[in-house]
Specification:
By secondary structure, the chain is an alpha/beta fold. Helix content is 42%, strand content 18%. It has twelve helices and ten strands. A five-stranded mixed β-sheet has the order 3-2-1-4-5, sandwiched between helices. It has a five-stranded mixed β-sheet with strand order 8-7-6-9-10.
C-alpha cells in the first residue's frame, strides 16, 4: 500500500508518503518521501505555541509541502477534469485562504496513480491546527476520490518505533512523553490500549519549557535545560567542589502507588529556589537544570518500572518529542537492561511530530476500520487512546 500521511496537531506541518506491506502482526514500512515545515521561529517570541498563528501557518504551507512531496512522475496531468470545487470550497470554509491555492494545485498537478489512502491526525492537539489538516485531507480525498482515515496522534507516536523495530509480543507498555502529554499505556494489541497513568497537570515537555523560562532560557526550553544538565553532570564526574548551596528538588508522586504523574510541584520548587537565590549566574543555572532533570528521570524510571512489574511486561515502547533527550533515553535503556527487558525507541527524526508515524498508524488502523472517501471527521483536542 502507498499511504499519504498528514499531521498538523501543533506547530509542525508534516506530510509523508510511505509504502506499507505485511500484515498487522508483521508490518513493514518504507519511507518514500517527507515534507516538513517547523514553526518554532514563528512562536519563539510568544514563549510557546500560539494556536491562531499555528493555524495560519499550516494553511499557508500545506499545499507547497504537498507539491514538494509528490513526484510528477506518479501520474499525468489530465486536461478538463471537472473537480467538485463547490463542495471543496464548503469543506475549506474554515480556511478560505487555502482554497485558491488548493484549486490551483489540483489544476496543475497530477493525481498519484497508485495512492491507496490518506491518513490524517484528528487529535489530540490544538483544534484550530487540527482542522486545517483534517479539512485539507477531506478536500483532497474528495478531489482525488481517494479514501481517508482519521488517526490518533498518540497512536502515531506508539507505532513510530515500527519503522526499524518489531514488537515481539503483547502486552507491552508505552511511555509517551511530549510537550503536551505524559502517559503510560498498556498495549494489549494494536488498536487496543488502556491508559494506566497520565499527568495530572504539566506534561514533561511542558515542565521543561516552564523551568527554562524561570531560568531565563530561550524557547523551546527543553534542549536548553538538557544542555545545562549535561554540563552539570560532567562537573559532578570531575568532582568540582566549587558549587553553590546544595540544590535538591522533590520527586512528585514517586511513591504514590499508582502510575500518574504530577510535575507542577517540581516546577514550583524550582521557582521558589530561584526566588530565594536571587540573581543567577551560569553555574547556578547549571546546578538547577541538573537536579531538575534528574528528578524527572527518577520519577519516569520509578513509574515505568512499577508498571512493567505489575503487568508482567518486558517490552517498553517510548515515544514523543521529549525522547530526543539523550539522558532520558540512556536511563530508560539501562533500566530495561537491568530488568532484562527490551525497549524500543523511534528514530530521532520520528520522535517529534511527523507525517510518517501518522501514515504508519493509518496502515495498522485500516485492518480494523475501512477508509472512506471524504468521511465525517471532527477535530478533537482532547482525544484519548481510550476513545
Amino acid at each position: 500500500m502507498k499511504i499519504l500521511g498528514i499531521e498538523t496537531s501543533c506547530d509542525e506541518t508534516a506530510l509523508s508518503l510511505i509504502e506499507a506491506s505485511g500484515d498487522i502482526n508483521e508490518p513493514k514500512f518504507k519511507v518514500l518521501n517527507t515534507a516538513l515545515n517547523s514553526q518554532i521561529e514563528k512562536h519563539r517570541e510568544f514563549g510557546g505555541v500560539f494556536p491562531s498563528l499555528a493555524k495560519r501557518e499550516h494553511a499557508l504551507n500545506i499545499v507547497p509541502l504537498l507539491s514538494s512531496l509528490l513526484n510528477s512522475e506518479n501520474g499525468e496531468v489530465k486536461e478538463g477534469i471537472d473537480f467538485p470545487f463547490t463542495e471543496i470550497k464548503e469543506i475549506l470554509e474554515r480556511e478560505p485562504e487555502l482554497f485558491e491555492t488548493f484549486k490551483k494545485f489540483l489544476e496543475e498537478n497530477p493525481k498519484p496513480k497508485d495512492l491507496d489512502f490518506i491518513a490524517v491526525t484528528s487529535g489530540p492537539g490544538l483544534e484550530p491546527a487540527l482542522w486545517v489538516g483534517i479539512n485539507f485531507a477531506k478536500a483532497l480525498s474528495l478531489a482525488w476520490n481517494i479514501p481517508l482515515l482519521p488517526v490518533n496522534h498518540m497512536e502515531g507516536h506508539i507505532v513510530s518505533v515500527l519503522k526499524e523495530s518489531k514488537l515481539e509480543q503483547f502486552p507491552a507498555i508505552a511511555l509517551l512523553i511530549s510537550g503536551g502529554h505524559t502517559e503510560l499505556i498498556l498495549i494489549k494489541s494494536w488498536g487496543e490500549y488502556e491508559i494506566i497513568g497520565r499527568t495530572l497537570d504539566d506534561a514533561v515537555g511542558e515542565a521543561y519549557d516552564k523551568v527554562a523560562r524561570i531560568l531565563g532560557l530561550p524557547y523551546p526550553g527543553g534542549p536548553e535545560i538538557s544542555k545545562l544538565a549535561e554540563e552539570g553532570r560532567h562537573v559532578k564526574r570531575g568532582e568540582n567542589k566549587n558549587r553553590s548551596e546544595e540544590i535538591s528538588f522533590p520527586r512528585p508522586m514517586i511513591g504514590s502507588g499508582d502510575y500518574n504523574f504530577s510535575l507542577s510541584g517540581l516546577k514550583t520548587s524550582v521557582l521558589y529556589k530561584v526566588q530565594k537565590m536571587g540573581e543567577l549566574d551560569e553555574r547556578m543555572k547549571i546546578e538547577i537544570a541538573t537536579e531538575f532533570e534528574q528528578a524527572v528521570v527518577d520519577v519516569l524510571k520509578k513509574k515505568v518500572s512499577g508498571a512493567l512489574k505489575e503487568f508482567g511486561v518486558n517490552n517498553l515502547i517510548v515515544g514523543g518529542g521529549v525522547i530526543a533527550n539523550q539522558y532520558i533515553r540512556e536511563n530508560l535503556f539501562n533500566l530495561m537492561e537491568e530488568l532484562e527487558g527490551k525497549v524500543l525507541f523511534p528514530e530521532k527524526d520520528l520522535s517529534t511530530d511527523n507525517g510518517v508515524m501518522i501514515a504508519m498508524a493509518g496502515f495498522l488502523k485500516q485492518f480494523r476500520e475501512k477508509p472512506m472517501v471524504n468521511p465525517e471527521i471532527k477535530a478533537e483536542g482532547n482525544l484519548s487512546l481510550n476513545d
